[in-house]
Design a protein that fits this description.
The structure is a homodimer. By secondary structure, the first copy, chain A, is mostly helical. In chain A, 68% of the residues lie in helices and 0% in strands. In chain A, helix 9 packs antiparallel against helix 10. Chain A is elongated, with a radius of gyration of 21 Å. Chains A and B meet through helix 8, helix 9 and helix 10 of A and helix 8, helix 9 and helix 10 of B. Chain B binds a DNA duplex through helix 1 and helix 3.
DNA sequence: ACCGTAACACTAACGGTTAGTTTTTAAGAA
DNA sequence: TTCTTAAAAACTAACCGTTAGTGTTACGGT
């Protein structure tokens, strides 16, 4: 089996990068809808088929940068300090991601995205996949001490927090507010676990059995 | 100006219905991807452009039935019994909707949807629009006693509950479980309101000020 | 030096969608 | 009735994202 070694991979990466850069530049210059795939391919000096061998769709060209989002989320769960409670760790990571995408430099790209229904739809769908990965990571981390349903729910809630915060007037405050809600929701789903983190110890374990699944 | 009176509207509605019926039949017979727009138009004996004057996209043909989803949600909020708390009302309606779409008769359509990425994506995007409407209804109902962020968050959570419950092995139990979480989240966001409904009176109003916005 | 194959190019098409234009048909006015 | 207006539907012809099919090149392993 060919062990990867050098030139080929570099050339491939260079082509991919050139396509992504060209695409983003053209989109920002003329608007997403006003630029066709054929325009991008021509300007990047590659064939249309080559473009599609690097990117699955036109929308994927825009979300090149945003690639590690999914991994950062799951890492925040699986790679957190031992005994650190789940929700605050998630909260911290989402805050960082929100800050990252509301930074001044990223503004034009997000204006681009918000301006195109196709891009928004693509993003939503991508986030849902992220939520599924996150749910899996959470379920694995908790090691069967929690329902799959509850894990999938918090995962979705966390993604919701990200996307609502991104749109809010004060993104950081919005994320804080939503995560206060998520913390409460998680405790309600967790009758068998100690309460800890940003919320006072309150009533944990209301004695209701988990019925689903 | 000509006041609309009868035949025209009936014929138009009939055309629309014929298109929708034909489309659904063909999709169920041959599969969504195997049926082209031109096939549907031909079988319904209309021009392609006519089809698109009735439906915005191919996917919209499938979600014809599901039309009143949005209105049922907002109605559940705005039209609930006086003094009935928000979350239980929402819970009840979502339960009804989940039951409706997991009923035996509806199974083939949902198999169709789950089988096509395009349809799933379309549905997600549609649900997000529903969540926005719901958030608006909730905000209006609460009359400024709650943050927009909190309203948008519960609205999303409710939609999440619907779509997670729909996929769960035991849909009703899953919806119950997630709504227990939502109830807790809502109380955490509601320092100024009495606790009531499906959850024991517990600690309401932890004395934390709402900071966002 | 040779072969296998990954990367890319080229042509042509498919399928959803839309613009432009024209024909039909219902609703009201003369 | 007949005429007028306008909505509904038809037809043509394309646009655009995407893919299949078919080479061609050049890198990497032997």
């Amino acid at each position: 089996m060919p062990e990867p070694s050098g030139r080929r991979e570099r050339k491939k990466a260079a082509t991919r990068q050139k396509i992504a850069d060209t695409a983003l530049r053209l989109f920002l210059e003329r608007g997403y809808d006003a630029v066709g795939i054929r325009d991008v391919a021509a300007e990047a000096d590659v064939a249309v088929t080559t473009l599609f061998s690097h990117f699955a769709s036109k929308e994927a060209l825009v979300f090149e940068q945003d690639e590690d989002f999914e991994q950062r989320l799951t890492q925040a769960v699986t790679g957190r300090a031992p005994h650190e409670p789940l929700i605050p760790a998630l909260h911290r990571e989402i805050q960082a991601l929100v800050r990252h995408c509301t930074a001044d430099g990223a503004a034009p790209i997000w204006r681009l995205i918000d301006g195109s229904p196709a891009l928004r739809e693509y993003e939503e769908s991508m986030r849902l996949r992220h939520a599924e990965s996150l749910a899996t990571a959470i379920a694995a981390d908790l090691d069967l001490s929690q329902t799959t349903t509850a894990c999938r729910a918090v995962a979705r809630f966390a993604i919701d927090a990200y996307s609502l915060a991104r749109e809010a007037a004060d993104p950081e405050a919005a994320a804080d507010e939503i995560f206060r809600m998520i913390e409460a929701a998680w405790e309600a789903a967790c009758p068998s676990r100690r309460a800890r983190g940003t919320v006072p110890p309150g009533r944990a374990g209301a004695g209701r059995a988990v019925t689903s699944r």
